[in-house]
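Chain A, query sequence.
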Amino acid sequence: MYTADRANVNGNNLNTSTVRQVRDSAMHAVHFYEDDGLFLDSLSEFVGAALGAGRACAVIATGPHRSALTERLRSHGIDVPFAVAMTRLISLDAAETLAQFMVNGHADPRRFNAVIEPELLRARKALRGRSTSVVAFGEMVALLWEEGQYEAAMEVERLWDDLAQRHAFSLRCAYPIGLFTDQAQYDLFRRVCSSHHQVISAESHSAPDNDNDRHRMISSVQQKAWTMQAVMRGREEEIARLKQVEALLQRSEEFARSIVECSVDCIKVLDLEGRLEYMSQPGVRAFEIEDSATLLGRRWVDFWDTEDKLRAEAAVETALAGGVASFTGQLVTPSGTRKWWDVRITPSLDAEGHVERLIAVSRDISELRAAQQAAIESERQAGAGRMAATIAHEINNPLEAVTNFIFLAMGVERLPQEAAQHLQMADRELARAGQITRQMLSFYRGSSKPRWVRVADMVHDVVNMYNRKLRSRHLTASFSVDPTLEVYGNEGELRQVLLNLTANAAEASSPGGRLWFRAHRTSNWKGVGKGLRITVADNGSGMPAEIQKRIFVPFFTTKAGTGTGIGLWVTKCLVEQQGGYVHFRSSQGEKQGTVMSLFLPIAQNATEAIAEVA
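Chain A, predicted structure.
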């Protein structure tokens, strides 16, 4: 900024010595400031004093400084609009004025004079011949210095000095001291100071009285600039370090979040009361909910079934005490799916080693549990089959002996008619007993290789196995099976499938109900594959929609205390292993009942059979 403070001199009315004295006394001062607000206060006092003393002022400053100066002058009681109207206060924008005389990064002297000199003459004209000075105030060199155009700024300083030799005015320029924080600018700083008659330090309004004070002030200003540079450099280094730490923390957080979000486990954070604070997104999907916010704040142990709730509470207590606990339990998801979980709960410690949160990691092991249960059930059935086969084999020996004895007894001469009839009845019953033992052997011994199986015989054998149960519940069985229909497959597995379907149909039927068994050749549901369809239907109670969605889910059962929940799941698996599929439909109400239908392809099986025979 440039300010001037000098008595107005009219060269036309003074002798040559007076004019020379006035021109020699023209003052070019520089003010280095730190605080913008304090500087504006000082500037407003300076300009206000000049206007109050009847002087004229030419102000060339930035927009914000011009506005702030106007407000401060008004607060001092100066009528700014009147001063402007009387041309005693001329206000110009520094950037716009600078653009009028700068050419290719240099100040053009001719253009400079053409822009600045008329404004000074206007200000002098407003004095109407009074012997008071013109005060010039500008901010163009500070803008050039801020842009790194140091030589251009020095050129403008010299142009002001040249103009001051032709017109009577004093000049003060001002620089933010923050522009001189680099020690490499020391020589430039010295040049700025040496080009001015006065150097005003920081926020001081006073000028030094002699050269020694002036040099000390310059050194003080430079020292302040270097101190500010050190402070700013320290702040910049601290900011850079903080940004680096923040970036590292952000990357670490993103990496940790990536691990959590990519994990298949359900990761939860609990507070010290065991209430849910966070659930990972994979956990949200595994738990079959759309938004974990609906569960936040609830006690985690309340999610578990009664029996497993005790284990969950014990695990929480262990973790709160600083230990690690684990258990296996099952719970029903909000959508109604029962799942098995392997849970591990650990404490999260603060900087002092105190427990501040709990981390519960749960893994869905329903499929593993189902496979284990299926293996156990398969082994149990295999064991039962081996025992049944052993018993049937051992029974066959005495049955054959008794059959032989009856045959011999029936050949005795003069055998009473009544005894002969009894022996015939015993022979029939022994034949039926033999058939049952052979049937047991066919169920559990079977053949490890596929073979052609007559469907009608297999269906009737299965129904005979449940004949006692059907009679006890007064259930009627109807058959519609082509006696020549055959399927190529594992007979034992096919019998197990029909056993499961028949058992379910019988248990779902009310006393006096009916079961239907049908088998016929057909195409698959797309109409492209040949095969046969076996249907087991009942007119029982039917299934509601929510149960129909889950009948093939392992361990889901509506037979509390008696069912295992794997019958239909095993049935589906066995049929799919032979290339088929299982469909069903069920309804309640007036036309209630359930129809289970399984499709078995025969084209591929027949090819395999022909190849095996060949």
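The chain is about 50% helix and 20% strand. The first helix runs from residue 16 to 24.
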